[in-house]
Amino acid sequence: MTLTGKMLIGQHAVCGHREAIQAINPATDQPLAPAYPGGAGEHVEQACALAWAAFDSYRDTSLAARAAFLETIADNIEALGDELIERAMAETGLPRPRIQGERGRTCGQLRTFARTVRAGEWLDVRVDTAQPARQPLPRADLRQRHIALGPVAVFGASNFPLAFSVAGGDTASALAAGCPVIVKAHGAHPGTSELVGRALAKAVKDCGLPDGVFSLLYGSGREVGIALVTDPRIKAVGFTGSRSGGIALTQAAQARPEPIPVYAEMSSINPVYLFPAALHTRAEALAQGFVASLTQGAGQFCTNPGLVIAVAGPALERFVATASELLPACAAQTMLTPGIFQAYEAGVSSLAEHAQIAAKGLAAQGPNQGQAQLFVTQASAFLRNEHLQAEVFGAASLVVVCANDEEVRQVSEQLEGQLTATLHLDDADLTRAQALLPVLERKAGRLLVNGWPTGVEVCDAMVHGGPFPATSDSRSTSVGTAAILRFLRPVCYQDFPDSLLPAALQHANPLLLRRLLDGQRERPER
Ligand code: NAP
């Protein structure tokens, strides 16, 4: 497939006329053709008009038709073959197995949402039948289901060019909910975005859906991004990226005459707690697992373990010593973009000003290669210095040495909201862990024991979210099937004749949905 450098507004390939975006191969610092001239206000207008025109008919598609559409997107992405893998590798510097794995996750995610759509539980059907004879007042017939919010603007992330980008989790969950999607492509991987965008637009056509179900725009966040978020036809936003970008979009959405929800996933340093008994019995093994998690994918994961918290003592010293022996053998890795590499360099310089360096990985051998770094500080210094809490996106981490359990608790209380908190513990640590849990539940969206936070499963129970600044709305997840809930709202139908009700709410339950019927959970055979 020849890349065109054009946007996709519905089924039309349209050339922008603003400053062009051009991908840079971060491994060579060389630009990659073609250039993608940026879109402007009129392109946002066209995409939003089409999305709005498509909304009512798209949200009215049957569960089977919508599920088949999601599966067709996955099939079409797979049909792109190696061209997609090679373009994504060139645009991100990520190795082949990682991109292949991410394609599998992206297509698996689309198919998981297809299963979710078919099951229909997300409709959350509740029926309270009429009680005309109830005293002192009769009760009306009340029926509730969830409907799609409206067209959704999605901002693709830099660090997952497939799984969090054009057809990633935000897009899949919004389409599953019945929302048309307009993606603002991330400037770091425009070619990957075009390939996936065309696969998605083809699925719209293959399935006979209205054109406006999907559009893909290129351009600057400050022009195209803000125009999208402030367009009255956009009803929600999905974003993964920097804290400043997420806040700018959230504020723009809140300042609208009609404010809308922004689901922004932004910044997290993912504390890892090493409890005393676990540290005593396996400090060296923990250091090995930690270094592997820290350096995976050049540390460019939102769940990267950026903070280690433990009580001082010989066992913690063994952990730091082993990690410091292992890190110098870790190769520097190409980061996603020159900008992200420069931000990493600035972040580690700031950490070096405020904490002691414990170890560094191998020095860079090429452009934009991030060198892994481990720092150590005392809890008393951490508690005084907000610089030590800033996310450094990349393979850098800080060990916070606490004098006692009370200092562990104080450090934990001071943490901002997090995507994850990890507890390494043995049986003898359970009482200590139990005491800390209420604090960690308040701070993080996912708590994990004796594992590492990198690696996020796409499943029904996953929470990839957390209090600010991990996300802008701690009530939601951006990974897993519960992500669909972000793009839905409940509607109640009172005293409707059966023939006027949507099929999901009709008396005979023709869709065989699980319903809450007069307070009892119904489980019809499907
Ligand atoms: P970014 O700079 O936030 O950009 C993400 C998207 O948001 C881009 O499309 C960008 O548009 C847009 N945007 C940014 N600022 C905006 C603003 N003020 N108004 C409107 N739109 C705006 O994120 P990035 O390029 O992916 O990475 C930069 C940093 O983000 C990293 O160094 C890292 O700190 C952080 N990051 C965090 C995570 C995480 O999961 N926690 C993931 C990825 C990145 P433009 O194309 O115009 O820039």
From TrEMBL:
Residues 19-458 form the Aldehyde dehydrogenase domain. The keyword Oxidoreductase applies. InterPro entries: Ald_DH/histidinol_DH (IPR016161), Ald_DH_C (IPR016163), Ald_DH_N (IPR016162), Aldehyde_DH_dom (IPR015590), Aldehyde_DH_Superfamily (IPR050740), ALDH_KGSADH (IPR044151). Transmembrane segments: none annotated. Keywords: Oxidoreductase. It holds the Pfam family Aldedh. PANTHER family: ALDEHYDE DEHYDROGENASE-RELATED, SUCCINATE-SEMIALDEHYDE DEHYDROGENASE, MITOCHONDRIAL. This is Aldehyde dehydrogenase (NADP(+)). It comes from Pseudomonas edaphica.
